[in-house]
Amino acid sequence: MTLELILFGLTAGFVSGFFGLGGGTVLTPILFTAGFAMKEAIAISIMQMVFSSIYGSFLNSKKAKHIFKDGITLGIGGSLGGLLNSFVHALVSDIFLQYVFIIIIIFSIVKIFVSPAEHNEEVKQHSKIVLLTVGFIVGVIAMSIGVGGAIMLIPILVSFMRYPLKIATSLSLFFVIFSSVAGFISLSLSGQMPFYEGLIIGTASLIGVFFGIKTKNLTGAKNYKKSILIMNVVILGIMVYKTVL
């Protein structure tokens, strides 16, 4: 099983770097399909996100230092929301989390599809209260379904806050640091974290992150948008198949 875990980590890492996600968006369905229980898949994904988000944000910072001011405020909100992870897990069932995941992916597909790949105007300044609130809400929901929050945050940043898509994905990956660390602490303290599997997948994901970001920087904005939409549709299909059929 160790080889499979390494392959899962490489895949999740590449997705994390290229799409600006924590990796849990693709890793959770993969682990679920591989036979892990939904809550186990979520916990492993959260640990992997700690690895990929920190390393990916370090690589992104070389080209997008100016975006991390908003990212810190969003991240603080996300970490506060992520601390509620174990509480939410104790209240709801696996099947409920699966349906929430499906709804969020559908929302992401619709919002990114109708938004332009690039915005010509300058990014508007947003109040810290707004950023903190958005981060908190995303953190609560995202950590409860095993994703770093980027799959929710990217469409919000692009469609409502008018960030260019590539900047939004860099910012969202930075946000994942805060939410995933909080979720990791929460699940670890409650005894729900599979450390062995998470460590193998997380370490392998670092290689994938490196190549994912390299590929992202070489991809045009329109093709990048298409890639994000395709990725979301594939993940939606997997989750619907495993949940409904």
The H-and-E topology, N to C, reads as HHHHHHHHHHH
Identify the quaternary structure here: single chain
Distance between the termini: 26 Å
What share of residues are in beta strands?
Answer: under 5%
Structural class: mainly alpha
Q: If you average the pLDDT, what whole number results?
A: 84
Compute the gyration radius: what is it?
Answer: 16 Å
* Shape assignment: globular
Extended strand count? 0
Number of helices: 11
Largest sheet: none
Question: Unreliable segments (pLDDT under 50, ≥5 consecutive)?
Answer: none
Number of domains: 1
Helical residue percent band: over 70%
Keywords: Cell membrane, Membrane, Transmembrane, Transmembrane helix
Family: Belongs to the 4-toluene sulfonate uptake permease (TSUP) (TC 2.A.102) family.
Membrane topology: Multi-pass membrane protein
Main location: membrane
